[in-house]
Amino acid sequence: MSNSSADEKIVVGQINGIFGVQGWVKIFSHTDPRANILDYSPWWIRCKGEWKQVKVLDSKVQQGGKTLVALLENVHDRDLAREFMGCEIAIERSQLVNPAEELYWIDLIGCQVSTQEGIVLGEVTGLVETGAHDVLRVEGPHGDLIPFVMDEFIRSVDLDTKQIVVNWEVEAEQ
Length: 174
Hints:
Blueprint: E1 9-19, E2 24-29, E3 43-47, E4 50-54, E5 56-62, E6 67-72, H1 78-82, E7 88-92, H2 105-108, E8 112-115, E9 120-129, E10 134-139, E11 144-147, E12 154-158, E13 163-166
Parallel strand pairs: 8-13
Antiparallel strand pairs: 1-2, 1-7, 2-6, 3-4, 3-7, 5-6, 8-9, 9-10, 10-11, 12-13
């Protein structure tokens, strides 16, 4: 991987509400488990199209683990917190535990998926968590939901070329 990817921003959530009167914001997290987003600081927050680095001063899990809230640097009241509503939260790839060794969901989005026979199925547009295993959502000429099970359905993942090769049968057109 190139060094430029170390500074790449990875969207991990969004500010989706305000909490109380002292500037706390509610967080919608894309991390798994959801509370992991609170382990990162600083955050990069995109408001009005611009990224701004913000330090997380404090964070909590509220209401039996369902609501995540954070107090951001220089946000001291409800009105300032409201300005962050709907803003994306990102971290830098370098903040991840093993950025070069681990495979993250965000890395798979946009990858082209082909069968071992070279038939293009489409592009990964998302992942679905089923409990048993994660499933790739592939949209394109032969789009499908493909279980992300290495060596069984997933034969190879090349993040440099954004290519995934799968062991998958393409349904015959009617």
